[in-house]
Backbone:
């Protein structure tokens, strides 16, 4: 398990409130990232149209995930998170169950262009045999444009969406922040509303993730100073990281949302398979979360 200080924990919780908390209600924890709870991706709730929609909702969420320490690691950690939840629907800035926290730049019936945000947890190298003696992996923050196109939909039944985000990625220990590079992760997502029973949404997603060279260096490079007999020096390169498939479920009951699912990532065609830090062709993550929304402020906005 990673070690927390009280100061860094408070800072990360504040950051999580602003960027990630809304997605506990609608999206899952990405396979590569809970090292990264990127509660920004795999469950996306599309509710039936209603006359009005809440402008502000407040709640609290509890989440658990069992995930790899980093992409293509063969060691796993259990992650727990308790956070306040804020759902806000402004005219431009939105933080809601549809697509997480973003600035909505353009929207039509089929196409949306957003400026979205995300984050990834840190990893303590002292708790990972492969990275022992190497620098820790810090928290990662991501932001960038995302093009979302609805390929097909059957109102109130199902939705097929292509999402194409390009993220600028930064790493931070809350004392300093450094730019890492870019992550490109197109994703095809299919949602089935009222799956088997009312108020249950099933989401199936397929995604391809590519790293720029500096992001690949962060995960897979081994400098000469950290080389050992078992861990040779290695110069990482940008390119394909993984192909992932996820299955998630979200069930709504009154003021509660229950989220559970799993995701599986394949790294066998990764550009950095030769790295001594590359230890597994596959990673499988499981996750579960519950969210309770205790406050709701309505306005005259209608669901689009």
Residues:
């Amino acid at each position: 398990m990673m070690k927390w200080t009280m100061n860094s924990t408070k800072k990360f919780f504040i950051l999580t409130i602003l960027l990630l908390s809304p997605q506990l209600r609608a999206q899952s924890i990405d396979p590569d990232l809970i090292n990264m709870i990127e509660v920004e991706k795999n469950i996306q709730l599309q509710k039936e149209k209603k006359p009005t929609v809440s402008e502000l909702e407040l709640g609290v969420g509890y989440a658990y995930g069992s995930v790899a320490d980093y992409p293509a690691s063969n060691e796993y950690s259990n992650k727990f998170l308790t956070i306040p939840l804020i759902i806000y629907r402004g005219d431009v800035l939105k933080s809601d169950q549809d697509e997480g926290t973003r600035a909505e730049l353009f929207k039509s019936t089929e196409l949306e262009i957003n400026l979205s945000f995300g984050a990834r947890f840190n990893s303590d190298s002292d708790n990972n045999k492969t990275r022992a003696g190497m620098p820790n992996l810090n928290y990662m923050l991501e932001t960038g444009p995302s093009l979302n196109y609805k390929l097909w939909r059957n109102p109130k039944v199902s939705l097929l969406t292509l999402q194409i985000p390009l993220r600028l990625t930064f790493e931070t220990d809350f004392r300093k922040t450094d730019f890492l590079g870019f992550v490109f992760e197109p994703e095809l997502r299919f949602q089935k509303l009222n799956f088997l029973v009312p108020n249950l949404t099933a989401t199936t997603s397929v995604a391809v993730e590519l790293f720029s060279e500096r992001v690949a260096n962060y995960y897979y490079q081994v400098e000469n100073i950290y080389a050992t007999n078992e861990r040779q020096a290695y110069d990482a390169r940008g390119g394909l990281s993984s192909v992932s498939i996820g299955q998630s479920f979200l069930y709504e009951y009154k003021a509660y949302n229950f989220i559970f699912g799993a995701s599986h990532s394949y790294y066998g065609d990764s550009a950095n398979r030769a790295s001594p830090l590359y230890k597994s062709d596959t990673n499988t993550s499981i996750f579960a979360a519950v969210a309770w929304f205790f406050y709701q402020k309505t306005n005259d906005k209608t669901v689009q």
